[in-house]
Amino acid sequence: MTSPNPQSENPKTITWSSRFAYIMATTGAAVGLGNIWMFPYVAGKHGGGAFVGLYLLLVLTLGIPAMIAETVLGFLGRKSAVGSLQALAKTYRKSAAWQALGWWGALGLVLVLAFYSVVAGWTVAYAIKALSGEFLEVGPIQVQRIWLHFLANPWEMLFWHSFFMFITLWVVARGLHGGIERASKIMMPALFLILLALMAYGLFAGEWRQAWQFLFHLDVHKLSSMVVAEVLGLAFFTLAIGAGCLMVYGAYLPKTKTGIVSSLVWVALLDVIVALVASMAIFSLVTSA
Fold it and tell me: How confident is the model at residue 38, as a pLDDT?
């Protein structure tokens, strides 16, 4: 991991412009397919309420403390994930091998980007299709044909993937304040509004009572050791723990009035809200089908 613009910005001097900017950017790093796609899928797979209750418990007891620990490492190191671990190991006379965790996290992020960018390209393409009216007055069979036709055209998928990557690189190249902060302040509130609109649509057009019962009726008999392991992995994935993102963002926190704990509690809360709102929107419509 590197800083947003290592040539012109140094976390020793450049910091987040506000607590709100840090919370939005960190929430943006945490929120993703794990919340909107994987969380509803795994909740449906494991019976809803038991999974949701365990997820919330693990986020509170393990997720938030792990977020704080990783962020503090970046806050103390003031460098990239690799650099912070290397510097802290040297300062406290520990093995230099600790920096391997930073490289491991960076490799994980590259692998995640490999499929995130493809799905993001699909999303952009489908947004264009939706705005053009391609999905108006078509049934499920026609929608499936559109999808299969899209998959059968690798050049179209490559174009949208490349388009998404260009936008991503452009935002990162603009640095901490002009790129990541500005994009997060606009896109994260927009995401919340879109999800709330989708949930509202699901509540009026679907069966919200059944969705609520499914998601929040706790049945501990559906839990098993395999479910606990899967939920723990999902909790850490949705909170962006262990990949170095939180460490890098922590390096740009100001040394005074940081409020690390309270800020990360807000990040975790917003992350959970996104997952639950997305699930309500999806299951309200699924249960009415």
Answer: 85
The pLDDT tens digits of the residues spanning 76-119 come to: 999 999 999 999 999 999 998 999 999 999 998 899 899 889 99
Cα distance between residue 221 and residue 252, in whole Å: 45
Alpha-carbon gap, residue 203 to 283, rounded angstroms: 10
How many H-runs (helices) and E-runs (strands) does the chain carry? 15, 0
Question: Of 282, 263, 287, which Cα lies nearest the Cα of 64?
Answer: 263
Helix axes 260-286, 19-30, angle to 10 degrees: 40
Q: How many CB atoms lie within 10 A of CB 54?
A: 21
Residue 12: the pLDDT is 56
pTM reported for the whole predicted model: 0.86
Indicate the SS3 state at residue 47: coil
Euclidean distance between CA atoms 9 and 230, whole angstroms? 38
C-beta of residue 272 within 8 angstroms of C-beta of residue 235:
no
Neighbours of 256 (CB within 10 A): 6
